[in-house]
Amino acid sequence: MNNNNEPIIGEYKKIENPYTGISIKDYNLEKRRLQLELLNIQRDAVKNKRKLCITFDGRDAAGKGSTILRFTENLMPQHYRVVALGIPTKNESKFWFRRYEKQLPKKGEMVFFDRSWYNRATIEPTMGYCTEKQYKSFMGRVLEWEHKLITDGLELMKFYLSVDKEHQLGRFQARLSDPLKYWKFSQNDLHARKLWESYTNYKNQMFTHTSSKKSPWYNVDANSKMEARLNCMFQVVKKYGNKNFVPLTGEDVLDKYSIDINGVVFANLNSLQYSTLKELKKFKSKK
User: Fold this and answer.
1) What is the pTM of this model?
2) Which of 129, 157, 207, 263 could, after both became Cys, cross-link 124 (CB 3.0–4.6 A)?
3) What are the chain's domains?
4) In this predicted structure, what is the pLDDT of residue 251?
């Protein structure tokens, strides 16, 4: 179904999970470490006018929104957006890619999609929200579209958060019993659950036909929300930031640091302040 010369991988990226069985204490330490790296990535994106786009797809209650929340918790709000589009209009459904092109990042911006254009590959055909012709057209065009965007400077990562039937049911039950979260559950969620196998078939077709070396899928086990959040952040850091980042060192970014610059000691610095001054010191030494 791919109309260009980019070879199809045929499989999503199977990524290892370094956070299996992580404790809440270690989770909070690691989350802060990764959030600092994400902030550094954002600062570099702003400085160098990069366009970063990170998409999150998956079944209902897979943890897409809560994962994005941990990504953005300590980012500079003026330089990122979260896109969670509602039901498309008739015109948006017809001109599908145009709907999402309007939401893509501008230079110096990060954009997170809570469900992406890949709704057309999974939930829409499962629920009968699109025609067979629309589905096939999407599957035949999407990689070519993404490759052009990437060639034009878009940096794209596609995450699929995978949750099994039992964990999804548990999360539905938790939503229904929580007066602050019951609104997240709808009858459509229940209907989609009844079509589990049909969705699985479309999902597998998506992985087979829309993953390439230039635009691969990252399939993340999301049965543990804590592990999934950290693993997604870790993959982004490895690809776009500190490629030498080592998971679970136990370091706390809230620890205090000091640095001497031209005989002036800067003390009681947090990790971000320290890394910024360290970078400045290197820059000055090169002059």
Assistant:
1) 0.86
2) 129
3) 13-254 (3.40.50.300), 255-287 (no CATH)
4) 83
